[in-house]
Amino acid sequence: MNDTVEQTDTAPAWRPCIVAFFCTWCTYTAADLAGVARMKYAPNTRVIRVMCSGRIDPQFILAAFARGADGVLVGGCHPGDCHYAEGNTKMLRRAELVHRVLDGMGIARERFRLEWISASEGDKVKSVINGMVDTLTVLGPLNLPGTFQSWDNELEEGNEARALQLEEEPSHV
Predict the structure, then answer these.
(1) Order of strands across the sheet with 18-23?
(2) In the Cβ-directed half-sphere of 129, how many Cα atoms lie within 13 Å?
(3) Residue 5's pLDDT is what?
(4) Is 39 left (phi over 0), alpha (psi -120 to 50) or beta?
(5) Contact in structure between 74 and 111 (CB atoms under 8 Å)
């Protein structure tokens, strides 16, 4: 009888990290409803509560990616239901800007998502988060901080090579 325990790979499987900016009046309340109703959705989301989706600066979204988020989700009130009249339409325009910037950086558009979710749509919070986790799992890790580090390393190597080249060149004086 063999008493040895079979070795398995104990490294945890990668799971996407999502930063979610939720409007306090609608989407955050819907997420709260989903929690109270014990709806199960992926625990990969870090929710940041904001007063209105119109208050989300595109820099916040890009900063989330730069600090390691694999995806960013913005949730706001349905058009016409914004508590600040036009905050969600501002976010809609900014979302297009964010998509253009992500395209320019070579980051898949699917990594950023804008959704209109009212306070009574806890089930929609669940389906949107689970759907986004599925999409990001297929895309794989973004690893933007690691990419930045490799760019920094390339710059340092390039600077060192240029410095060596300058030392070897004869002076023209």
Answers:
(1) 45-50, 18-23, 71-76, 112-116
(2) 30
(3) 42
(4) beta
(5) no
